[in-house]
Design goal:
Blueprint: E1 3-9, H1 13-23, E2 28-35, H2 42-55, E3 63-65, H3 80-83, H4 105-115, E4 120-124, H5 129-137, H6 141-144, E5 147-151, H7 167-170, H8 173-181, E6 186-189, H9 191-194, E7 198-199, H10 201-207, H11 213-232, E8 238-239, H12 242-250, E9 255-264, E10 274-276, E11 291-298, H13 300-312
Parallel strand pairs: 1-2, 1-4, 2-3, 4-5, 5-6, 6-11
Antiparallel strand pairs: 7-8, 9-10, 9-11
Bound molecules: alpha-D-ribofuranose (RIB) and calcium ion.
Calcium ion is lined by residues 9-10, 12, 15, 38-39, 125-126, 242.
């Protein structure tokens, strides 16, 4: 049976690649998208998500709109220099035909997990505010979810949104500290591995040769995103963030993991840093925290081959 997943997303160019990767993977059943601020404002994330379902030919997959701001502060704003003003590489497509469902993202997450005990894998690839809200509204989702696989965080490497912190966590550190501290099975697919998954120009150019609407859309939106990486880092191509979380769900053997309790910095210039407590000594602020399955190494070539093979299928 395909594995049921909900993707909580701020599409976003790499979100789009991850969503299409999941849709093209027969081992997965995407039962819904929930949207959040981050790369764009939440309402635009929903518009983009609905349009992506139409482009993919799966307009029946529901999109539930999430909250507009982090738990304790106003949203700091989108990142058009990375994903475009439209969150789709500035190709400015017309609005979609459909619209999101009435149910909110936290309510959708709760209803799906509680009505399919043990079956749903939650894949957040944006800030964790919806997930934290769902936990607050219905703590029993911790006992009924199959697994939570998060793209976000940075355990042993520098951040990307700041020298200290990764973007999804920095956008709502309080939510992240709640999510990493809840008693449920969580895997963190952070910069420790996504900054080692490098999609080179030849991989990106290959999308243009894949004859389906999903790959062709990716080929249209990726140039703006690629330009950000090539003008910001000494590299060619892009790092693969959100698709790495989908790859973990499909094949955890792509990764080496460590199990550490995590805390998230919520104050000062390191706000958003995910701090593991490594070693046997108990540390007061990490006491009674659950172990998080933290990805620390990855087989990048095999992951990229898997994503491209899925897009070609
Ligand atoms: O730090 C990378 C993460 O931030 C990805 O999820 C990307 O889409 C942005 O949301
Ligand atoms: Ca994202």
């Amino acid at each position: 049976m395909p594995r049921k997943i909900i993707i909580d997303t701020d599409p976003g160019v790499d979100d789009t690649m991850a969503i299409f990767f999941a849709l093209k993977s027969t081992a997965l059943d995407v039962i819904g998208l929930t949207t959040i601020f981050g790369n764009v404002h939440t309402n635009l994330a929903s518009t983009n998500a609905v349009r992506l379902m139409e482009i993919a030919g799966t307009p029946q997959i529901p999109v539930a709109t999430g909250v507009a701001n982090p738990l304790t502060r106003a949203f700091g704003g989108p990142v058009p220099f990375v994903h475009g003003d439209d969150g789709q590489g500035n190709i400015h497509l017309p609005p979609p035909q459909g619209k999101p469902i009435e149910q909110s993202a936290p309510e959708f997450i709760i209803e799906q997990i509680m009505s399919h005990p043990g079956e749903i894998t939650l894949v957040p690839v944006g800030p964790l505010t919806n997930i934290a809200m769902a936990l607050r509204l219905e703590p029993r989702i911790t006992e009924n979810v199959h697994e939570v696989v998060i793209m976000g965080g940075n355990a042993l490497v520098p951040g990307n949104a700041s020298p200290a912190a990764e973007a999804n966590i920095r956008n709502d550190p309080e939510a992240a500290d709640l999510v990493f501290g809840a008693p449920w099975p969580v895997t963190m697919v952070g910069l420790d591995v996504t900054h080692k998954v490098h999609m080179a120009p030849q991989h990106l150019d290959h999308y243009k040769t894949i004859n389906n609407a999903l790959a062709q859309h990716v080929a249209r939106i990726v140039p703006h995103y690629r330009n950000y990486f090539e003008s910001s880092f000494d590299m060619e191509g892009i790092y693969v963030h959100d698709s790495s979380a989908i790859a973990y769900v499909l094949d955890p053997t792509l990764f080496k993991t460590e199990q550490w309790p995590l805390r998230v910095e919520t104050e000062g210039f390191s706000r958003g840093k995910t701090w593991p407590s490594i070693g046997k000594r108990t540390r007061p602020d990490w006491e009674n925290r659950p172990l998080v399955n933290v990805c620390v190494e990855v087989d990048s070539p095999r992951l990229i081959d898997m994503e491209i093979a899925a897009m070609e299928a």
